[in-house]
Amino acid sequence: MFEQANLREPRNVLGDWVLRGAIAVVFVIFGAEKFSSDPGSSWAKLFEQIGAGQWFRYFTGVVEILGGVLALIPWTATAGLALLACTMAGAIVILVFVIGRPADCIFAAGILIALIAFWRSRRS
C-alpha cells in the first residue's frame, strides 16, 4: 500500500523536448525582435517609455535568447527556465510600476506561470 505512494510516473522525454523546444523558439524569436534597427518599432517605443535607454532593450534581447538556448539543452534547462522566469517577473514589475499599465502584464504573467509550472513538472 505505501509502496505505491512513493512511485512516480516516468517523465515523458519526448514531451519534455517538445516543450523545451517551444520555449526556446518563442524566446529566441522575441529576443531577436528586440534587435530591430527601426526606431519606430514597438520594442523601441516600449523601452523608450521605460527610460533605461536602448541598451536595456539589447540586454533584454540577449537574456531572452540566452535563456531560450539554455532551456533547450537538458543539463542547463533549469538555469534557462530560471533566467526566463526572472525576465518575465521583471517585465511584470516594469509594466505595473514603471509604465503604469498593469493590464498589459497579463501576457507576461501567463508566461511566468507556465514557466514555473513546467519547471515544477520537470522536478518530479
Itemize the secondary structure elements and their pairings.
Elements: H1 2-6, H2 13-33, H3 42-50, H4 54-72, H5 77-98, H6 106-123
Give the count of helical stretches: 6
Number of strands: 0
Radius of gyration, CA atoms, in whole angstroms: 17 Å
The rounded distance between the terminal residues' Cα atoms is 21 Å
Domains, number: 1
How much β-strand is present in the residues?
Answer: under 5%
**Helix and strand sequence:** HHHHHH
The description of the largest β-sheet is: none
Helix content: over 70%
Structural category: mainly alpha
Shape, per Cα inertia axes = globular
Low-confidence stretches: none
Averaging pLDDT over every residue, what do you get?
A: 90
Structure description:
This protein is mainly α and 124 residues long. The chain has one domain. Helix content is 76%, strand content 0%. The model has no long low-confidence stretch (mean pLDDT 90).
